[in-house]
Design goal:
The protein is an alpha/beta fold. It has 13 helices and 12 strands.
Length: 399
């Protein structure tokens, strides 16, 4: 037997495992590195977040990714080069984190690497009859495995698409396994570049679990801040709080077929970008409004599309506890809008469930790797609600 196969078999049968989960989102601000200790699988999964670090990307990394990110016309040679380069960059970050944490690579059983999304193309967006849903993440798993010496599970989204999904959101799987609670209805709301939520019924019925993107979370606000202020985000909503919501622009932003599509659905910066904002300003006659009013309106836009999506599948959120994660939870104006639009609802963060909310997405990919290698028998339902009943990920060996 190949020694790597033997090693994988030994890991799968062990009582506990140390898995590093990696997440690099559409904001491309840094790599989330979550060291997790696992025991069990499926609904018996137990997880402890041992260490966590968000490692900010340097300007060179951001520049290289920006050259191909969400662009229909990209340099194919650059994409080819970056696929390997991102993998080696992420491997170096892993090794730096391990040194900081006082651990050796040999102590780690698996790396779960999401990679870097550079284009997301659901059929609802590309509308080409002969093609199905598609998505592309770079940062090849073989490069992560070889440079760290750790077995790596990566490229999770392709199995989801092959089995009939859109490749996103994948949060439903991890949310169901580690955050479901008998007799408590929960909404797991993640506000990253794109906002999404998972509906977890207290019945624990897998066929009732629901997950969907809602539209822009931070991506439009962040893009606007980069262009006009040279900053990566609106810290403490400092700019947006100085402005007022422009109702004409808000109506134009919300007037898009995406918001009328049935759930589940996915999207990305391929749709919600500065060109989308500029078009909305043109049709609403608001091209000359202030930066502050633009940011205030974008914040309200994210809040209304998030809450309207949730209201459409719940009774105004009544009877649910909300657990929030992602960068948007740190935006006080955005969160104020959301709580005002869902009055009477209880809002907590995943910290209340013993998972750092900034680490949640990286943790969820570690969960997917644990399930892929050690589990694989849990029933995620009958494939309804855009959640194919599959385990996801591809295995890369160090040698």
């Amino acid at each position: 037997m190949n020694q790597n196969i033997s090693r994988l078999h030994e890991i799968a049968g062990r009582g506990q495992r140390l898995i590093i989960g990696l997440m690099s989102g559409t904001s491309v601000d840094g790599l989330d590195v979550a060291l997790c200790r696992f025991s069990g699988t499926g609904m018996d999964t137990n997880i402890e977040l041992v260490d966590f670090e968000t490692v900010s990307y340097g300007e060179d990394y951001k520049k290289e990714i920006a050259a191909v990110f969400s662009k229909k016309m990209a340099d194919l040679e650059k994409v080819c080069l970056l696929n390997a380069w991102v993998g080696t960059q992420h491997a170096a970050i892993i090794l730096d984190c391990l040194r900081k944490w006082g651990r050796q690579p040999s102590e780690i059983d698996l790396v779960a690497s999401h990679g870097q999304t550079i284009f997301h193309a659901p059929k609802s967006l590309h509308k080409q009859a002969k093609f199905g849903n598609a998505t592309l993440q770079i940062g090849d798993g073989d490069h992560v495995a070889v440079h760290t010496g750790i077995i790596t599970v990566s490229d999770f989204r392709q199995k989801h698409i092959a089995a009939g999904g859109e490749g996103a959101p994948l949060a439903a799987y991890g949310d169901y396994l580690i955050f479901s609670k008998k007799d408590e209805n929960r909404i797991m709301l993640n506000i990253g570049g794109i906002a999404n939520f998972t509906y977890l019924p207290g019945s624990l019925d897998a066929d009732a679990v629901f997950c969907s993107d809602t539209g822009s979370g931070n991506t439009l606000m962040d893009a606007y801040m980069r262009i006009h202020y040279g900053k990566y985000f609106d810290e403490h909503a400092g700019v947006a709080l100085q402005g007022s919501v422009n109702t004409s622009l808000l109506a134009a932003l919300k007037d898009h077929p995406f918001f009328r599509q049935p759930f589940p659905k996915t999207t990305g910066p391929e749709l919600f970008n500065l060109a989308y904002l500029h078009h909305a300003k043109e049709v609403s006659g608001t091209v000359d409004i202030s930066h502050e009013d633009t940011m205030a309106t974008l914040s309200r836009f994210s809040a209304e599309t998030i809450t309207e999506a949730i209201k459409s599948v719940t009774d105004n959120g009544k009877g649910f506890r909300f657990y929030v994660s992602g960068g948007g939870m740190h935006n006080p104006l955005l969160m104020r809008h959301i709580t005002e639009l869902l009055p009477g609802c209880t809002f907590l963060s995943t910290k209340d469930l013993h998972i750092n909310p900034d680490a949640k997405e990286a943790v969820l990919f570690a969960v997917l790797a644990n399930e892929m290698i050690c589990g694989g028998s849990v029933n995620f339902g009958k494939g309804r609600n855009g959640i194919p009943n599959v385990s996801m990920g591809k295995v890369s060996f160090p040698s």
